[in-house]
Amino acid sequence: MAETREYKGIALIRAEPPCGMITLRGGPDAAKGLATAGKRLGVKMPGPLGAELKDDRGLLWMSPDEVLMLCPAEDVPDHLDALRGALKGHHAMAVDTSDMRVRFSVSGAHAREVLAKLCPLDLAPDRFGPGHVRRTRLGQVAAAIWMRGDGAFEVICFRSVGQYVLDLLQVAAAPGSEVHLFSQPVG
Amino acid sequence: MTSRRIAGKGRFIDSSSKVAFTFDGRRLTGHPGDTLASAVLGAGQVIMGRSFKYHRPRGPVAAGPEEPNALVELGQGNRFEPNQRATTTALFDGLYATSQNRWPSLEYDIGGINAKLARLLPAGFYYKTFMYPREFWKDIYEPFIRKAAGLGKAPTEKDPDTYEHVHYHTDITILGGGVAGLQAALTAASGGARVLLLEQSPHWGGRVMADGGEIDGKPAADWVAATITALEEMDNVTMRLNCMGAGVYDHGYLLGYERLRDDTPSLPGPRHRLWRIRSTRVITATGAIERPLSFAGNDIPGVMLASAVRDYLELYGVAVGRKVVVVTNNDDGYRTAIALKAAYVDVPCVIDARPLGGGPLMREAEAMGIPVERGRAIGKVKGGQYVEGVAICSHDGSGGVFEREIECDAVAMSGGWSPVVHLWSHCGGKLTWDAEQALFRPDAKRPPTGADGEGFVLPAGAADGELLLGDVLGNAHDAGREAAKAVGKTAKVRRRPVAVSVAQAPILPVWMMPARAGYELRSKAWLDYQNDVKVSDVALAAQEGYQSVEHTKRYTTLGMATDQGKLSNINGLAVLSDALGQEIPVTGTTTFRPPYTPISMGAIAGEARGKVFQPVRRTPMHDWHDTHGADWEPVGQWRRPYAYVRRGETVHDAVTREVKNVRQGVGILDASTLGKILVKGPDAGKFLDMMYTNMMSTLAPGKCRYGLMCSENGFLMDDGVVARIDEDTWLCHTTTGGADHIHAHMEEWLQTEWWDWKVWTANLTEQYAQIAVVGPRARTVLEALGGMRLHPQALPFMSWTDGQLAGFDVRVFRISFSGELSFEIAVKAGHGPALWEKILEAGAECGIQPYGTEALHVLRAEKGYIMIGDETDGTVIPQDLGLNWAISKKKDDFIGKRAQERVHMADPDRWKLVGLLAYDDAVLRDGAYAVAEGRNANGQRNVQGRVTSTYYSPTLGRGIAMGLVHDGPNRMGEVLDFPGTDGKLYRAQIVDPVFYDKSGGRLHG
Q1: What is the ipTM of this complex?
Q2: Residue among B167, B613, B618, B741 with most chain A CBs within 10 A, to mutate
Q3: What is the set of domains in chain A, with CATH numbers?
Q4: What is the pTM of this model?
Q5: Pfam families given for it (chain A) (predicted)?
Q6: How many C-beta atoms lie closer than 10 Å to residue A165's C-beta?
């Protein structure tokens, strides 16, 4: 994936550097221990389909019993230690998954429609915005999408298909392919 | 050829400028806004193609997407595309079109001889003729049919254009941008609902753009313009021209087909876009299509739908003839006569099948001086390649006597209107026969229903069977209100627009003209123009016993052409009903299936072509492999090196070298694709005891155990090494292909069956790169890296430990799939490439070499290890493979246990795993069968076994194989016969499947 890290078509596609990720799984009985994750990052525990983000860290709701913790890569060991301590005696799982996925950002006036070409989500601004996360597909592979505070979308997919997803996003952002769905027609 | 343009007419064209194009090699000009059909007609040429079966000359009969005749090959080279409708092809500068199905030219076509043989080519001709003798089929009949079949040629070059999909969610989608669609959108959107409005053509307004009328006190076209402006100003309305509603599917899913660059091929961007829409409600405002009349010679170029004649005149400024006879069974035909006359085109007469003629429109025509022949019919059209005149007769007769002939060069026919019910019907909407108007219309009581049991499609306007302007608008307004209500909004537009509708006299249903036409006329009256199906063919099918309209369709090919019977369907089933002596609704319609008109293959594929045709999964070390001679092998969606081929080597040479190097020194393998599933919780041991056939709960932390996983039916589905990490955590390795589905299998059982067991799983497959270092010198290499102790006491066979190698945090498993001393090292994926390089550096002295999947396979086969997918195929149980040692007898249950106790599974006659050594050291063919005495009921040789894995073993210097053989383990030393597909007989001896190091000394080294 070395050749292209950034591409500008009708949206800006960028391969983002790796960050720390911790997969947390637990049920209501482990809620208190899991809340440690939010406390350490300074964010709330997200509700269903929710993303609680603060700068380069946050919690993404992945399923009714799974949350993905985002943080700077160097913080992972400390967070893991603290979480395992807080979860001791509870039936829960905290595991480093930082290397498992790769991350891209999609930004610009047509970012929504670039993603709408590849995934079946309702990406209308009043249906999907900051604070939301969706596990979906991009083309033929699994992905998750959320929005940053600056209006850019973040996309994660499994590491092995990183090149495919980067290629796919570039194809979807090809010049002249504006759909003008979620933005006013330009010109 | 002289121009047929009428000055001052042509709403859609810019007659002040010209567009140059090529048709059949001739340079012609049209105007911006023309379709290809209007431009060719405007240039004075009517004939545009040949029919499928008889190669009859064909001109356009319609002006829109229903066109069956004017199909052309568009473009050249890599932009060549066959079967494109000239009536929906927008003209652009440089357009290149060629007519189809003719040789050597449109005007002089050799295949036209078929028309002379029409009596020899009746309905079902192919079925009747090509059945016998059977042996003629392959070499004689099929090549003949293939040569004769098909209209356009298939493209041969790679399409340079791009295509894409887009997903869109909305409350209400309105298909059709005529006045009904516009009004429905205006009403529906007024309450705030999200509305998507799609129109297939490049223009809003539908029929009123040609037919005019008055809405809310202003000309209809002005109302259309004002409504478009109003809709464009609404944030909750999205509108698209050139975007056809292609199909309506379950759960409010529908497809839109947008054509973006057909007429601007040089601009960047996708040519077509497929809209994948989720809509709570769908309004089909798809209008209606005029029906042809079935009279003799109704296929001669110049015979057209009356509405199409108006379209060419009003929208494109083209008069289809100088003298145009109108024939009709309803008042609408008079609109054409009036429009032509007003444009100073001669209309010799209107032939009206109704004995009393029509209403106010007829009187208006008569007032303009157009004679009306009441109760009359066209007996036949005179002419060959173009219309020369018509002979008229009484409609209520057999046409035996023609009263007189009228000279003309075009005929405008109107047989009444059929609502476009296709999109209503795609997902199960039912129809009802409206006898008064002689048309099928949507049955409001039987709509297509969604998951909640409510209808989710609402028809509007002409598509709902409303044919008068005022009724169309009122009906559409109601549909808009109802749709808004259904999505929880209240429409704010309350007033129905007011339109003045001209009163119309009732239609006289005419399915054949004249009403009792004899065979001679029926056999020249076309129903399906493209496939050459005539009234006589459908009547013959009925005579031969066909009753179902679906069977008749397939027997006669009625409605099976690229236009899917848009013009022929209703007329055909009416003729069938008549022949069967039953009412039309008893016969019913054929099934309306998506897409409404053909959509491009490119649009269906979307972005999935070229490098993103399919995802390719890459391991962290992929790039290294790629630059070091990897001969790639697809393994699921992964790419794995099959072998690393050096200069001067064949792939086979490379495999041999790699195997020897592992056995004699040390090799390194990228094993990252193996599945790695973490299973954790107080009930994890209990859970894994159910998942695996053997006992996992008793495994000690730090230890590894090889496990088998079976399906509920007892069949072996996956295998791998399980490592116990700590008191309540296990790490399960799966096969490369098994990672995802075994994780899903675990979650399914946990979520549906054992939801109260305390177990969490995580699929960590991609978190780690896994590197196998294998061979007698493996330990030496790893110790050179430094960081951890790996001697046999510190890390015995089938154990694991965490530590550091070359400064990387690693987990080292002492497991082996080769029979050699072997370590598998898991490291964070991001560190994989760096550690890989370090190992290669450290191993250089020991002659370390990477090896690929084929060497891996050979190594395991030499050792008699099974491979999921080779020794298993979904019908094999572990007992067949001699793996009883891995099936716990202590456990009460595991998935597959009960199935394995069933009679057939416990049958001693099952084929079981053995080794096979072929005579002369040969390598047996993979999958080869061992034959037994006698033959089976099909006359085939009986069989008693088959080869499941077979390789050349570099270690043994000969072919080795494994296979499943009847009672195999009890037949050691026996010889089996394997007839080869090369005609030779291969013989092999049954032996123990472990060919190498039976004592396992090397493994434990």
Answers
A1: 0.95
A2: B167
A3: 6-16+100-172 (3.30.1360.120), 20-99 (3.30.70.1520)
A4: 0.93
A5: SoxG (PF04268)
A6: 26
